[in-house]
């Protein structure tokens, strides 16, 4: 095997490695973000469940709803979607 062949092989390996990293790293980051979001949601739900006062629970749920862009419906204690703006 000549020196030129070894250089071609090394360059090909580096290009292949680079392509693998370009495909793998974003997927790994996305998976990590999803796992972290799920963990935080579970921790939030656990903390809300541990609140002993119903009024405290309602305040926390309302705040979470508004922070996520929803509209808290006091009668049902549920988070609804914000209505679309009316354009004239």
TrEMBL record:
The chain crosses the membrane at residues 6-25. The keyword Membrane applies. This is Uncharacterized protein. Keywords: Membrane, Transmembrane, Transmembrane helix. The lineage of its organism: Bacteria, Pseudomonadati, Pseudomonadota, Alphaproteobacteria, Hyphomicrobiales.
């Amino acid at each position: 095997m000549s020196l030129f062949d070894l250089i071609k092989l090394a360059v090909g390996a580096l290009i292949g490695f680079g392509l693998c990293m370009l495909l793998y790293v974003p997927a790994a980051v996305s998976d990590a973000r999803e796992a972290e979001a799920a963990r935080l949601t579970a921790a939030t739900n656990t903390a809300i469940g541990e609140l002993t006062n119903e009024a405290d629970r309602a305040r926390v749920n309302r705040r979470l709803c508004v922070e996520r862009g929803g509209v808290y419906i006091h009668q049902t204690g549920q988070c609804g979607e914000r209505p679309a703006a009316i354009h004239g």
